[in-house]
Amino acid sequence: MVLLSSSACRRLGLGISLVLLPIFAISAVVATQRAPPSFVDERRLPLTEAEAEAKRKAEEQALEKAKQEERRLAAEAEAKRKAEEQALEKAKQEERRLAAEAEAKRKAEEQALEKAKQEERRLAAEAAEAKRKAEEQAQEKAKQEERRLATEAAEAKRKAEEQAQEKAKQEERRLATEADAKRKAEEQAQEKAKQEERRQQAAVVAPTIAAGGAAARSVAECGNDKIAAQAIPGGRFKIEIEAPCRANQSFVIQYGQFVFQRQFDTAGRGTAIVDLFQGKDPPLSLQFADGKRQSVSPEAVDLRGLSKVAVVWQAAVNLDLHAYEYSTLPGTKGHVWVRSPSSADTALAETQSTKRGRGFLSTSDDGRGSGDKVEVYTFWHHDEQQSGVVATALDYESRGDQPGGDVCGSGPQASVAFETILITPFGRVSRERGSIAAAPCGVQLSGNNRFMEDAVPDISAKR
Amino acid sequence: MTGGKRKVPGRATVVWRCGKGLGCTLPIMLVAGSALAAEITLQMKGGGFTIQGELKAFDGTKYVIESKALGNMSLEASRFDCVGGGCPSQPIAAAPAGAVAVARSGQLGTTTWMGGSAQGTAVMPKLIQAYASSIGATVVRSVGSDNKILEFKLTDTGGRELGNFVVARQGVPAGLDGLEKKLVDVVWSARPITPEEQAKAQKAGLGNLRAPGNEHVYALNAMTVLISPDNPAVSLSIDNVAKIYSGQIKDWSELGLPPGKINVYAMVQTSGYWGAFEEMVLKPRALQASPDIIRLDAATDWSDKVAQDRYGIGITTIGLIRNSKPVNVESSCGLITRPSNFAAKTEEYPLTHRLHLYSSGLPKSQLGRELLSFALSPAMQPVLKEVNFVDQSPELLDFPAQTARVAYALNAQTEDFDINMMRTLISELKGASRLSTTFRFGTADATLDSRAIADIARLAELLKSPEYRGKQVLLIGFADAIGSFATNLKLAERRSAAALRSLVVAGGAQVRTQVVTRAFGELAPVACNDTPEGRNFNRRVEVWVKN
C-alpha cells in the first residue's frame, strides 16, 4: 500500500484528471455517438457549444410554434365571433324584412277594407238618391201621361169628326166617279160594237189574203203555246216552248231588269236555260213578238248550298269570266272559264268526294246576240269547309292582248259598261256596276290589265 | 282620357274619345235626323184636311211626312197637293238611320286616297260602296286602266255624277309624298309614320301628322304568318319567324320539319304591313331582312304565291289569308295563340297592330271629308267585318276554341299551381263563351282605368240587349304570376269585384241577378309572364257568357 500525501494526492488527481479529461472529452465526443454510461445524468452533462446552439434553436422554434398556434387559435376564435355576429345580424335583418312585409300587407288590407267601406257608403248614398229621383220622375211621368191622354182624347175626337166629314165627301166623289165610269163603259160598249161590225166586214175579205202564205196568218190565232219549265242542277231553269205559229220569231226572257233575247226555230220550238244569278225574287217572264206575256215561277229551282257570281253587259263584245279555284294557276285544274267550263255534275261530285267546294261555268255568252249578255260561275259549297277563296277575273276577250279598231282608244267599244252580281248560299245578293276603261290602241296589255282581278268579286268557300 | 262633343249645324252631334292606347281616335258621328229635311204642307184635294210636317221621303206616288201632332204618316200623292217651298220635284229616298246627310244640290268633288295594296284592295272599295249606300247613291267601278289604281264614280238615282273616289295602291311613302304635294287627301297605312316621315311632313307645312285630327286609327289587324296547306307545320315561334326572314334559318329541316329550302315571300318594302312586321318581329331582335326575300306587290299574291309553293312562307293581314294555311304563333314562354279577329280584339295575339289613316287636317273635297268621317264612324264596323278585318264590335268565342290556354297552363305548371282550382276553372267555363271585352289593370291594382270604365258602360248596354237577356255573365279576375299564389288570388278577387261594382252602377241593380264574379289568380295566363308586356295582359278581368 502506498500512502500519498494530500498534496501528492491532489497532484495525482489533477494529473489523472489531466490525463482522464482528454480521455473523457474524447469519450464525450464518442459519447455523442454512443449513450453515456447509465450512471451519468445526461441533463447534468455540460453541453457543447453546438448542443447549446441546437438546444437554443429548438427552444426558439418551439416558442415560435407555440406563438403561431396561439395566433391561429386567436384567429379562429375571431373568425367564429365574426360569423356569429353576421349570423345574428342576418337573422335581425330577416326579422325586420318580415315585419315590414307584414306591416305593408296589414296596411294594404286596411286600405282595401276602408276603400270597400267608402264604396259601400257611396253606393248606398247613390242608391238613395237614385230612388228619390226615380220617385220624382215617376210622379212627373204620371202627370205627363195624364196630360197626354187628355190631349189625345181631344185630338181623337177632332180627327173622328174630320174623318166623318171626309168620308161623306169621299162617298160623294165615289158616286160621281161611278156614274162617270158607267157612262164611259156604255160609250166603250158602243165603240166595241162598231169595231166588231167593221171587223166582220173586213173578215169577208181576209180569207183571200190568208190563202196567200203563212206569213199572213193572223196573230190573234196564235194562242196554243206549250211552255214547259223545269229546274235543272246548279240553280238554273230550263224552258222549252212549242209554238208553231211563232216559227223564226224572236222571244224575250225578262229576269228582273235584264232582258235576254232568244229565237224560235223553223218549227216554232224554242229552248232557254235561265241561270238564277239574282236569286228567285226578281220576276221572270217570257214575252213574245205579239206582245203576249207569260210569267214563269222559278220556285222549284234549288239554290241551297250555291254561290254565283255573274257578269252582265249590253255591248256587242265578248267578255270572259275566269274563276281560279284555290289559287290555281291559269290553264290548270280549277281554272274555270268558257273553254274549260266543267259541269254541274262534275263540280257537285267533286265537292262531295273531296269535301271541298268546286264550281262550273253555268252560263256563258259570246257577245254576238242582242239583249243583255251574261256569264255566270256557280260554286257548290261543302258544309264542312271552313276556308278557301275562288279568285275571279274579267277578260275583255274581244280586244285581246293588243287592242285595235273599235275596241281601243276612242273607238265605240273601247269602254264597256258591265254589272256584277254575287249571290251567296243564304240568298244575300250584292251588285256593283263597273266600267272597263279604254286601253290605248296598239299597246300590249300587261297580265293584270288583260285579266282584271278587281272587276269581279271573289267567292268565299266558307258557307 | 280626353274627349268631347261638338254640335254641328242641323241636328248632328259629333262625339270623340281619346282613349289609352288608341290615341284620339274613332270619333263617333251621331246624326239625330237629316240636316236637309224640308217642312211641307199637304192639302187634301177638294179640301177638308191639311197636315204640316217634315218630309221624310217621296217616291212619286206617296209622301212620307212626320208631323208633331200625328207622327209618321204615309199619304197618297194622288189625293194631296203639296204647297210651300219645300215640296219635292222628284222622288227622294228616305235616308237610313245613322246616315250622313249629303248636299244633293251640288258635286261632292273628287278625293284621292293612297296607300298599300291590302287595304286598297280589300277595304277601300267596300268603304265607298257602304258610303254610297248610306246616301242612296250608286257606285261605278272603273277597271283596266292601271292595275294599281281603282276609280269609283258616284252617281245619284237619276244618273247625275256626284263625285269620284280614286284609290291608288302605290305604297305609303308615295302616299305621304302625294300628301305633301296636295295630290292626295288621305294616306292609309298599316304602321304609324316614322319620326323622319313626321319631320319631313312638318317641314313641308302639313303640320304634325301624328296629332289628333291628322292621325286616325280606324281598325286593328292580326298579322298572320302563312304556309302552304301541304306544309305539316302548325305553330311557329316568333323567334323562328324572325330567323327565317333574316336568313338565319334557310331549310324547313332546321325546324324539325321535312327538308326543303324555305322560299320566303313578303310584301314590297313600301307597304305599311312590311313596316309593321319589321317593328314587331325583326327590330326587337336586332335582325335585318334577308335580301333573298321574294317581294310581291299585289296583296292577293302575298297569300296566293304561298298557297302554290309547298316550301313557301309568307305574311299577310288576317283578312287576306285566302287559300294559304295560317300558323299559330308561339310566344317566348311556349304560349300558343291562333291568329283570329277575337285574339286581335283582345290584343292578346302577339302580332296585333293598328291600321291608320293620315290627313293634313280635313280633306278639301266634301266627298273626302265625308268618306273620312264615315270610315271613323260606327257605320264602318260592319264593313270591316264583311272583309274580315278586325272591327270593334264585341265578339264571343267558345271555350273549346281556347283550349290552347288551358293546355299551356297545365304544361307550364309552377310551384304554386293549384290543380283543383284549375279543374274548377275548366268546369266553370265549359259551355261558356268569352266576350272580347276585357278589363285591364296596373300592377297590384284593382282600379278600373278610364278605358275600362268606357268598356263597362258599353257592356252594360250590351247586357240589356235581347241577345243577352236570360244569360249568365261571369266576371273572372286574373293576375300576373309575380308574387305568391295566394296574394295573386286575392288581387284577382278584388279585380272582379271592382268590375262588378262598376257594372252595377252603370247598368242598375238588376245586373246583380245576371252577373257573378269568379277569380283564378295567376292560372290560365294569356301572355308570357316573363316580360312586362306579357304581364300587362295577364292583369285582367275577362267576361264570359253562359246560357
Give a quick summary of the entry.
With 463 residues, chain A is α+β, with helices and mostly antiparallel strands. Chain A has helices spanning 6-33, 49-203, 206-210, 344-354, 447-450; strands at residues 226-232, 236-242, 250-255, 258-263, 269-275, 284-287, 293-296, 306-313, 320-325, 335-336, 358-363, 373-380, 389-395, 416-423, 429-436, 451-452, 459-460.
* SSE-based structural type of chain A: alpha+beta
Shape of chain A: elongated
* Rounded Rg of chain B: 27 Å
Q: What proportion of the residues of chain A form beta strands (DSSP E)?
A: 15-25%
The chain-level structural class of chain B is alpha+beta
How would you characterize this protein structure?
- Chain A has a five-stranded antiparallel beta sheet with strand order 11-12-8-14-15. In chain A, strands 9, 10, 13, 16 and 17 form a five-stranded antiparallel beta sheet that branches.
- Chain A is elongated.
- In chain A, β1 and β2 form a beta hairpin.
- About 6% of the residues of chain A have low confidence.
- Among the domains of chain A are: 71 residues, Immunoglobulins (Immunoglobulin-like, Sandwich), CATH 2.60.40.10; 160 residues.
- Chain A is α+β, with helices and mostly antiparallel strands and 463 residues long.
- Chain B is an alpha+beta fold and 547 residues long.
- Chain B folds into four domains: 45 residues; 152 residues, D-Maltodextrin-Binding Protein, domain 2; 121 residues, D-Maltodextrin-Binding Protein, domain 2 (3-Layer(aba) Sandwich), CATH 3.40.190; 151 residues, OmpA-like domain (60s Ribosomal Protein L30, Chain: A).
- Chain B is built from 16 helices and 27 strands.
- In chain B, strands 9, 10, 11, 12, 13, 14, 16, 17, 18, 19 and 22 form an eleven-stranded mixed beta sheet that branches. Chain B has a five-stranded antiparallel beta sheet with strand order 7-6-5-4-8, with no helix packed on it. In chain B, strands 23-24-27-25-26 form a five-stranded mixed beta sheet.
- The longest helix of chain B is centred in the last third of the chain and has 23 residues.
- The chains are: A alpha+beta (463), B alpha+beta (547).
- The interface between A and B is large, with 36 and 36 residues.
- β15 of chain A pairs parallel with β10 of chain B, so a sheet runs across the interface.
